[in-house]
Structures are given as structure tokens and as C-alpha cells.
Amino acid sequence: MRPxxxxxxxxxxxGTRGWVVAPVRRLSDPAPQGRYxxxxxxLTPTDTAALDLALVAGFCTADGxxxxxxxxxxxxxxxxxxxxxGTGILTLRPGTLxxxxxxxxxxxxxxxxxxxxxxTAHEREQDERDRLRREAALAAGPAPGxxxxxxxxxxxxxxAQLAHSGASGIGLLATELLFLGREADITDEAAHHRAYxxxxxxxxxxxxxxxxxxxxxxxxxxxxxxxxxxNSFLGVRGIRLALRRPDDLLIPQLRAxxxxxxxxxxxxxxxxxxxxxxxxxxxxxxxxxxxxRIRAPRVxxxxxxxxxxxxxxxxxxxxxxxxxxxxxxxxxxxxxxxSRTNPALARDIDPLHVAVNRTVGHVTDTAHAAGVPVTAxxxxxxxxxxxxxxxxxxxxxLTVTLPAIPAVHEALTRLDxxxxxxxxxxALTTGGTPHLTEHVTALLGL
Length: 446
Ligand code: PEP
Ligand code: MG
Known about the structure:
By secondary structure, the chain is of the alpha/beta class. Helix content is 39%, strand content 17%. The strands form two sheets. The chain has an eight-stranded mixed β-sheet with strand order 1-8-7-3-4-5-6-2. The chain has an eight-stranded parallel barrel with strand order 9-10-11-12-13-14-15-16, surrounded by seven helices. The chain is globular and about 70 Å long. Magnesium ion (MG) is lined by residues 272, 306, 327, 329-330.
């Protein structure tokens, strides 16, 4: 895309891919007639999940980070997003016509005349390219290049799209998102049961990998009255919280899941933020106790590999788990010691850092030697370049947001044996997003 003649460009960091042209608006401004680009200091994951998709064409935040849960929610909803763009965006006059470039991490403000025409034409071209890719992905089936694609989504209403998405099933049901900002009680077995039963009915034969509640970090649940932590991402999050409160968090959720499995739902259960084998075996014992009481069938139990201790000691896990799923967002945050939500570090969070690639390679090599399947999820899996790197490092399945499937599908279809070897070599020796983007883009003609 040629630079614009008159528009002012605000440089942020890519959040969610896509290009949209619309006027900007802050939430405090009067409601406009049609669709708009939301500008805000920051958005919480709850705010983002509640956005009205009929009106919000995209968003740009002054703060935030590219692998934050806010961006994960935006990914899931397919809303183009730019983060960490600085406070200048907050001074834009409401109604200023802008182009939001989610791939480039840019907001072009004040479009008129030829600039506006060029931006709108680019939007149409992108839409058409996406449509063609979607059709190709659907026609080709859910395992391009031998990598199984599954999906993640944010709103239960999106589940109906699974059948037309080119994905084989749901690879990550982030259950806490079903409750964020809603009235339902997160400790209520009946509320959990309704959610999983309805979903299982909607997706039919497709498998659903359910992640138990990942509360904490930037996903607080006020009703639980959890103590405030200085550094919540290093605190009582995910399985740590579930094992401290089995009676009101873990057991009601597991009971609901096994009841759905007993009714014929095809489920797998995975635990987040696992650090030690003992955490997994304790959670698995509780699950087995719940299962036996309900007389439900066994379902595969696995862990998310997102804490470096788990990744480095993965040889100790493989004898116990049925599957592994690498959470690339958290693995990157914890390996690089860089918070997902700190805007000052937004440009330093590199999920293709050579250290992350080597850790992924170590996990896949160890898991394969033990015959344990290993998939990956998180923002990296949903980018064409990231998906090609992960597949080259031996990942056999990727969990991708619905809107990202066509572009990922295209990249994996082009990744033949020789390309895999070349990408693997570059990932494990040099790494880094700029280098790998250039290498993979040229190699696969993306
Ligand atoms: C991850 O950490 O990569 C992941 C998929 O989980 P979340 O982003 O929900 O923490
Ligand atoms: Mg995670």
C-alpha cells in the first residue's frame, strides 16, 4: 500500500490482522450513525468481549500488548486491532476518517480525496482475497500440509460457524471467557453444564478441547473476592487457583463436563498454567473421582505448556498426560520475562524469539519420542508466518481463531518438506519476527 499524501500515521503494534476504513470514536463520544473505529486508552478482555460487532469495525488502543487477552478476544471475534499506539490517538476529533491497518500496526488518520479512495479500494481487495482464501480452505479440508486445524472462539454464538470454517473441531474452549462480563455465576455447575451441553449439541460430532478456568492475571472475576496480587501474572492463576478452591471452582466445572461426556459430547479436558507434574496428577485425580461418581466415560486429559518449567521438564509429564498444547502467548511472556499487558514492552514481545522456538522444538521432540500429540495455540498459531514456523518445529495441530483460518491454511498448504527443513533451521539458529517473516514470506510466496 502506497503511503498516504495527507493522512497522519500513528504507529502502534499489530494486534489483529485486517484493514478497515471508518470514522473514529471514543466510547464517551456521542454514538455515530454507522460503523466506527474505537479509540481508547486501553480495553479489558471483558470490554472487548462486549463490543457490538455491528458497530465496531476495529479498535486502536494507546496502551496494551500484542499477546494480551484483549487481543486474543479481538482475534477470536475477528476485529482488526492495533495496540500500544500512544496517547496521540486520543486527541483525534470524533468522526475523523481513518484506516486501521491491523497487519502493519498503524492508524492512518484524516483521510480525504485520493487517500480515501485508495484506502477504500485496498479494503475491498483485502475482503476479496479473504473470501477466495476461505473458499480454498473449505474445499481443501482441515489438515493442510498434514497439520490439523482446530478453532478457538469467544462467543457461543460463533460455534455454528464451525461447520463452514475449514476447522476440524474446537481446539481451545477458554471457559472463563464464557463468564466474563455476564451475569452467570462461575461457580454454578448448572451454568457450566448449560454452556457445554449447548455447545456440544451445536458442533455435533466435532471434538471440543475444554480448558478449565484460567482465572487470574488480567482476567479477574470480582465475584470471587480474590486477594489483590502485586504481580498477578506470576500469581495464583489457572490451575493454581483451581487446586486451592476445588469445591467451588474445579469440581463444579468437572462435574458439568463429565455430565456432557456422559451424554455423548466428544470432549478433551486441559489444565492451564501447570508448572509441576504434581499439579497435573492432583487435578487428574480429582477429575477421575468426579468421573467415577457420575459413571461418565473417560476423556483425554492434557496440559497447556505455557510455563517454562513445564516446557523444560516436559519429559516428566509425557508419561502422565494424554496430550499437550503449547500456549504461545504465555510461554513467550514467561520466557522473555515481559508482561503481555505492558505497553512499554509491546515491541519487545517476540513470540518468534529463538529461545521460544528452541523451547517449542524441545517440547515437540520430547513429546513425539513418547508418542504424545502436541498442538499449539495463542496468537502465533493464528498468523501465517507463525503457523509455518510452528509446523516446521514439529507441531501436528494448530488452534486458530475462526477469521485467521484461511490465511493459515494457505501458508501450511505451501509448506512442503524442503521448506519445513529450511524454516526449522532458521527458527532454531537465528529466530526473531523480522528475520523469520522475511524468510517465510519469500519462501512460501505469501
Ligand atoms: C496462550 O497462553 O497462548 C493461550 C492460548 O492462552 P491465553 O492466551 O488464554 O492465556
Ligand atoms: Mg495462556
